[in-house]
Write a structure and sequence with these properties.
With 194 residues, the protein is of the alpha/beta class. It has a domain at 93-194: TIM Barrel. The chain is 41% helix and 14% strand. It contains 7 helices and 5 strands; from the N terminus they run ααβαβαβαβαβα. The protein has a 5-stranded parallel β-sheet, with helices on one face. The longest helix is centred in the N-terminal third of the chain and has 17 residues, at 24-40. The termini are far apart.
Length: 194
């Protein structure tokens, strides 16, 4: 039987598919190119691990200058924290007592943890969980055309930011948006009207 896990140099005709294959040299070049672009434009780069979910790739991104990582779920953030990552942004609202308890434990484990909120309900859950001893940084998620999640108006963003700032265990950290494809104009309009 053919080895289902090919070693480097195996001819593609001998690889059982589907099979993820990573060209490590090309990957390293892509990571360096992305970071160089961010550096050239003065942008802090925080890649989302959902595209690879690999500790080794995230470590390579941080090694060349990424400021931290984005995770979609609490369990992803926990796994990457266990691997030594200490600046994590979770880009999805965290709800429910079990997840909030896990988030509180993670906040103790890492140097910098940031989450998003797009409703008073989410903020109130976070506020009931976190204490002023090590406040949790919260970004207000804004919908700027993606139609996925986030507050709909600058006025809603302001009200939610005030609610975060008023909670002793939370710290308002700014705004987060995920613009729709080609949606830079919508983002600019949202921010201009703020």
């Amino acid at each position: 039987m053919t080895n289902p896990w090919p070693i480097p140099g195996t001819a593609l005709a001998n690889v059982l598919t589907p099979m993820p294959v990573i060209d490590e040299d090309r990957l390293a070049a892509n990571i360096a190119r992305a970071q160089a672009y961010m550096d050239k434009h003065g942008l802090a780069f925080r890649p989302h691990i959902k595209t690879h979910k690999l500790v080794s790739v995230a470590a390579a991104q941080v090694a060349v200058g990424a400021v931290g990582i984005n995770c979609q779920k609490l369990t992803e953030a926990e796994a990457f924290a266990d691997a030594g990552f200490d600046d994590i942004l979770i880009t999805y609202n965290i709800l429910g007592a079990h997840k909030l308890a896990g988030l509180a434990a993670l906040n103790v484990q890492v140097a910098r943890l940031t989450v998003v909120a797009d409703s008073a309900f989410t903020v109130d859950g976070l506020a009931a969980t976190f204490e002023a001893a090590k406040p949790l940084t919260v970004l207000v998620e804004c919908d700027t055309g993606g139609g996925r999640c986030g507050v709909q108006t600058p006025q809603q963003a302001l009200a939610l930011a005030a609610r975060i700032a008023a909670a002793p265990g939370l710290r308002f950290g700014g705004l987060l948006t995920y613009p729709a494809a080609g949606g830079a104009t919508a983002v600019e309009a949202f921010l201009q009207s703020a």
